[in-house]
C-alpha cells in the first residue's frame, strides 16, 4: 500500500523569504499523480500544485514550485517570496493511476507560520 | 461560479444517532468524493461517487453510506454515531475523464459527537 510522509509538523519562514516543505512517499507504481494542498483556517483545501509522475519537468505555479525526485520518492514544495497569506496547513497527496483507483492518500500535514 | 457547497457547517449529535451531510459539487463536475479529517490529521478517503454509483470505498465501516443524485449532488450518512466519528467531513468534486487535475474541496462539515 502506498504511504505519504510529511516529517515536518511545523515550519516557520520570515515574510519575503523562501521555505521548502518536505514530502516523501512510498509506492511500487511508475505512474501516479502528486499534489500539494493548502488548508487555511477557513478549512477549505485549496490545490496549490500538481505533478504527473511521468513528466520529468518540475511543476511551477507562480511563487510555488516543486522538486520532484522520482527515484528518491521525494516531492518537496518550495514557496518563494513568502507572504502572510501563505500561513496554513500544507498537505501532500498521492493518487495512483491504477484502473479503479481514485482515492487520494494524504500526509499528516505541515503547519507553515509566516513571520512579519 | 459557485464552488463546492457543504451543509451544515457545524453539527452536534449524540452517540447512537444518525447524521446526514450534504454536498453540491462545483458546476461542471460530476464526481464527488468524501473525506474524513480528524483533528491534527490528513484527510482519509471514505468513498467516491460517479454516475450515481459508489466506485471506490475506503477503509470505513458500513455505518458510513452515501448517495449521489442525478444532479450530481451527494449525501454522506453515518449511522450509530461513535465518539470517534467526531471530525471534519470534507466533500470534494472533480470532472469526469481520464486526467486528474485535482479536486475542488468544500469548506467541510464539523461533526461533534457527544
Helix- and strand-based class of chain A? mainly beta
Q: Helical proportion of chain B?
A: under 10%
What order do the SSEs of chain B take from the amino end to the carboxyl end, as H and E? EEEEEEEEEEE
Structural class of chain B: mainly beta
Broad shape of chain A: globular
Oligomer: heterodimer
Fraction in beta strands of chain B: over 45%
How many E-type strands of chain A?
12
Helical segment tally of chain B? 0
Compute the separation of the termini of chain B in Å.
37 Å
Largest sheet of chain B: 7 strands, mixed
In summary, what is this structure?
The complex is a heterodimer of chains A (116) and B (114). By secondary structure, chain A is mainly β.
Structure commentary:
The complex is a heterodimer of chains A (116) and B (114). With 116 residues, chain A is mainly β. Chain A has no helices and 12 strands. The model of chain A has no long low-confidence stretch (mean pLDDT 95). Chain B is mainly beta and 114 residues long. Helices cover 0% and strands 50% of the residues of chain B. Chain B has no helices and 11 strands. In chain B, the strands form 2 sheets. In chain B, strands 2, 4, 5, 6, 9, 10 and 11 form a 7-stranded mixed sheet that branches. The A-B interface holds A 4, 33, 35, 37, 42-47, 50, 91, 93, 95, 100-109 and B 31, 33, 35, 40-45, 48, 55-56, 58, 88, 90, 92, 100-108, 110.
